[in-house]
Amino acid sequence: MYGYIISNSNIKMNEIFQCIQVGSYYFYYNPLPVFENDHIFKEINDVFVLLDGVIINKDELMKEYSSDDWPYVIKSMISDYGKDVAGKLRGSFSGVLYFIDQDELIVFTDQLGSKMLLMYNSKGSIMIASHISLIWDAKKRIKDIKSLSINTDSMYELLATGSILEDKTIFQEVRRITAGRRWTINSLGESAEERYHLFRNLPEHKISLDDCIEKADVLFRNAVDRIFRKNNEYGYSHECDLSGGIDSRMAAWVAHDLGYENILNLCYSVKGSIDNKVSKKIASDLGNSYYFLPMDEHIVYDDIDDRVMLSNGQIHYLTSTGGYRSIKELSNKKIGLCCTGLLGEAQKGNWIEGTKHTKPKYTSNRMSAFFEFNPELGSSNEYDNYEQMSLYEFGLKAVFPSILVRQQQVEVLSPLIDTDYLEFVFKIPLKWRIDNKFIQEYMCKKYPDAAKYVWQTTRMPVDNFRGGYIFLKSLGTLKEIPSGLLINY
Questions:
Q1: How far is residue 323's CA from residue 333's CA, in Å, rounded to a whole number?
Q2: What confidence tens digit (pLDDT) does each residue in 105-130 have?
Q3: Is 363:145 a contact under the CB 8 Å cutoff?
Q4: What does each C-alpha distance from 115 to 126, 180, 474 come to in angstroms?
Q5: Using CA atoms, how far apart are residues 174 and 181, in angstroms rounded to an integer?
Q6: CA 101, 89, 117: angle at the middle one, nearest 5?
Q7: Neighbouring residues of 219: CB distance < 8 A, sequence distance ≥ 6
Q8: 357 in the Ramachandran plot: left (φ > 0), alpha (ψ -120 to 50) or beta?
Q9: Cβ–Cβ < 8 Å for 438, 213
Q10: If DSSP states are collapsed to H, E and C, what string results for the chain?
Q11: Maximum pairwise Cα distance, the chain
Q12: Which of 184, 157, 13, 171 is nearest to 86 (CA)?
């Protein structure tokens, strides 16, 4: 198991983990062997730093601090920003800052919570881990397994919504450190939570739709460039998920437009579906390699135990079927950072109810109504509106965690929810964001050739269906269209 666990007692993890005792804590780390030079596991000026994952703006930060010594850059950032360092990083990461003199531990995950980070703090025992199985294993080693008990509310939430919400986990005593948050544990073992980043979606940009598109395009191209540039830095192959949707298509198209070559487009769907046919045609037209994983009915039931374990039991096993198959099928490829189109719902305004923001609430967004269960979301009070709550409680906790099953082999990022890009898009006036208007106009204006292919959602080419999304919703789901109409040649 790749990852790390930190404890205030010697839990004697096995020899695959590097172990360092610093002050009151034991640090155990077995890093994923990709992007090794982004990782930090050392003491820097009375601060012990553990940084895990991939930092896609590392080259920008090194340029800013005029140094190619990454630990020195982090040291300088700690001097400048203290415990706020995480807010300056971009990528898929989690980490720990241990201020030795103060015996104070700061633990954090990235703005999207793309790395799992868990905390056990009970009866004087503290454990911080990147995977719940590491806490389980540590508890077995010190013969304290009875201190963990199943969280039945979490199980009901998982059955009803397909995921475990807020900061809950499968164990009552273990909490998840969620997107854009950090926890401080002081010398007395007392923990306190802070949010260092929150995506605000209240409209601010008083500019035209065309100007919004121009500014968004600069940020999106930078988001895609960071991912592909990072692979080039390490000599890794490029892999970009591709379907019949509009989101992954944008990522693949922009990567090609930026001049990146030797890209492998991966599609997992039902054979012969629009996703399969359109993605294959796009990949061919871009000159990319194409790899198709058929998601036949029986496949969704393969490797269920592995998928549940790798996702920490946080999401329904169906969510991660394609992602898990892909790491098995492509294990012989030299892939470091995968580019996915996950959570394009955020930019398309799919979580906006009607024509204006509504109050945060739990709705009928559930996988099963077999039993009566409506979770009480105590955190709903901290959100401005339903869309913002949906991003965090359904998007980042029910959909995006599907990448967890890949993270024992590769890193994964989606430029659609790149921090800088999404912060801008979320502030575009609602009249342009609802019903896909912004994203359709964006593609038609900036990448018109990409708009000529059928969009899986509407089953028509993007440029032939501008402004027609409301009409589509009134019709309900359309039937499969003849394959000959898939693409305007």
A1: 15
A2: 999 999 999 999 999 999 999 999 99
A3: no
A4: 20, 11, 39
A5: 16
A6: 70
A7: 418, 420, 421, 424
A8: beta
A9: yes
A10: CCEEEEECCCCCCCCCCEEEEECCEEEEEECCCCCHHHCEEEEECCEEEEEEEEECCHHHHHHHCCCCCHHHHHHHHHHHHHHHHHHHCCEEEEEEEEECCCCEEEEEECCCCCCCCEEEEECCEEEEECCHHHHHHHHHHCCCHHHCCECHHHHHHHHHHCECCCCCCCECCEEECCCCEEEEECCCCCEEEEECCCCCCCCCCCCCHHHHHHHHHHHHHHHHHHHHHHHHHHCCEEEEECCCCCHHHHHHHHHHHCCCCCEEEEEEECCCCHHHHHHHHHHHHHCCEEEEEECCHHHHHCCHHHHHHHCCCCECHHHHHHHHHHHHHCCCCCEEEEECCCCCHHHHCCCCCCCCCCCCCCCCCCCCCCCCCCCCCHHHHHCCCHHHHHHHHHHHHHHHHHHHHHCCCCEEECHHHCHHHHHHHCCCCHHHHHHHHHHHHHHHHHCCCHHHEEECCCCEEHHHCCCCHHHHHHHCCCCCCCHHHCECC
A11: 69
A12: 184
pLDDT, tens only, 322-371: 777 787 788 878 999 999 999 999 999 999 988 999 998 776 566 666 76
Single out the residue of 179, 154, 106 nearest to residue 383, CA to CA.
179
Q: Please, are residues 8 and 19 in contact by the beta-carbon 8 Å criterion?
A: no
Q: What is the pLDDT of residue 298?
A: 65
